[in-house]
Write a structure and sequence with these properties.
Blueprint: H1 11-24, E1 29-37, E2 43-51, E3 58-63, H2 71-82, E4 94-100, H3 104-108, H4 135-144, H5 151-168, H6 170-175, H7 196-209, E5 214-227, E6 230-234, H8 241-250, E7 255-256, H9 275-282, E8 287-296, H10 300-315, H11 322-335, H12 340-363, H13 369-377
Parallel strand pairs: 3-4, 3-5, 5-8, 6-7
Antiparallel strand pairs: 1-2, 2-4, 6-8
Helix pairs in contact: 1-2, 2-12, 4-5, 8-12, 10-11
Length: 387
């Protein structure tokens, strides 16, 4: 059978396929139950499997479902990799921790966000400090969150968005989608505190890699980029040593998140509060390398109506109605195309990138003895990823 057998379009099937694949590899699955329930009253669960013994010095985390509905793509990637040759050829001293559906609420309810309308991949910020303002989102908030989807309101919202994009430029328009902390019911809301998924993944990092000398993370996403292609995105500026290290692992395809589209005047990335940014900071005594692996689906502009419909549905509509199911199904399609060719490309690329990460982690020698000693005692200066 082809790679399509690894990918499924229901929450229950995704979980079962991952569990069966882990069992096939002899990797026990530990399940973490979310406090909420799914649309059919089913438990919402993040499943975690580990390949490799405890105490090894190098640990790779593979995470799916940070943006809930995107987990259907990511889960298929992990399931396919588990059925391939990679797990049977892990180098000595390397463990792989597979975290399936870290945002199970979003996965089950076919949403990118969690139970509190929080975009988990904007939630990894210092919630005790001041949130970064997003005036571009403020300008477009009313065009993205409508209280009615009637044709006149939709057309007016389209005109307003197009006018802002034309007058303020592409960079300003895309900054509007980089995350916001002022409108809890709006799109791309980053939350006002660490959410369940954030707390769980941090606990897993500590449990599995607190004593590791080297750790790596691949966070699986879908929606942006060329159709079927997996783009590796690093949370480093191109001049950072961490970027150079990741470049040796993933090659010329690697992209800096600071170079996506155009940075703002202060040089910040368009997107903030991401998991890959938090990873290195959370393990200050390890050499950490993190990427998001983003699989392209449909053009960004084609996804805006679906985003607006999803926001309306869960703000003002009835998710369990026939219209609600149609909106949810369209949202799923935007991040998980029902196309065997797309799934084949995703499966192939995912296995390639995972194997690159395993090989890079095993071979990494970027830290000399003095730097290793400093890292163990916490005496290094600057960002951990810049060693």
């Amino acid at each position: 059978m082809g790679s399509e057998r690894y990918f499924h379009r229901s929450y229950g099937a995704v979980r079962s396929a991952f569990q069966d694949a882990a069992d096939f590899r002899g990797a026990p699955v530990r399940s973490y139950e979310h406090p909420m329930r799914g649309p059919d009253g089913e438990p919402l669960v993040t499943d975690v499997a580990r390949l490799g013994p405890a105490g090894v010095p190098r640990v790779l985390f593979l995470v799916t479902g940070t943006h809930g509905v995107e987990g259907y793509c990511g889960a298929g990637c992990l399931t396919g990799w588990l059925h391939g040759d990679g797990p049977g050829n892990l180098p000595a001293g390397v463990a792989v921790v597979l975290v399936n559906l870290i945002n199970p609420f979003g996965a089950a309810w076919l949403r990118r966000v969690n139970e509190d309308n929080v975009d988990v991949n904007r939630n990894f910020v210092d919630h005790d400090g001041a949130y970064r303002p997003n005036p571009d989102y403020e300008a477009l908030h009313d065009a993205l969150l409508l209280d009615d989807l009637d044709a006149r309101q939709v057309e007016a919202a389209d005109r307003r968005s197009a006018s802002y994009r034309r007058e303020q430029g592409e960079a300003a328009y895309f900054r509007a989608f980089g995350g916001q902390y002022s409108h809890p019911r709006g799109v791309l809301f980053g939350g006002h505190g660490p959410v369940w998924s954030n707390r769980l993944i941090r606990a897993l990092w500590r449990e599995h890699a607190a004593q590791a000398s080297h750790a790596a993370l691949v966070d699986f996403h879908s929606g942006m980029g060329p159709y079927g292609y997996g783009m590796p995105i690093a949370p480093f500026r191109p001049e950072d040593a961490g970027y150079a290290r990741a470049r040796t692992w993933f090659g010329e395809a690697l992209v800096s998140m600071y170079a996506l589209d155009k940075p703002d005047a202060e040089g910040d990335a368009l997107v903030g509060g991401t998991m890959i940014e938090a990873f290195a900071a959370h393990l200050p005594q390890t050499v950490s390398t993190a990427i998001a692996l983003e699989f392209g689906t449909y053009p960004f502009d084609d996804c805006i109506p679906a985003m607006r419909a999803d926001a309306w549905l869960h703000g003002f509509g009835q998710p369990e109605s026939a219209l609600g199911r149609r909106i949810a199904g369209d949202w799923l399609e935007k991040f998980f195309p029902d196309d065997d060719d797309w799934r084949y490309m995703v499966h192939w690329r995912a296995c390639q990138v995972i194997d690159q990460a395993v090989r890079g982690l095993a071979d990494d020698g970027s830290m000399g003895p003095a730097c290793h000693a400093a890292a163990r005692t916490g005496e290094t200066s600057g960002r951990p990823e810049q060693h």
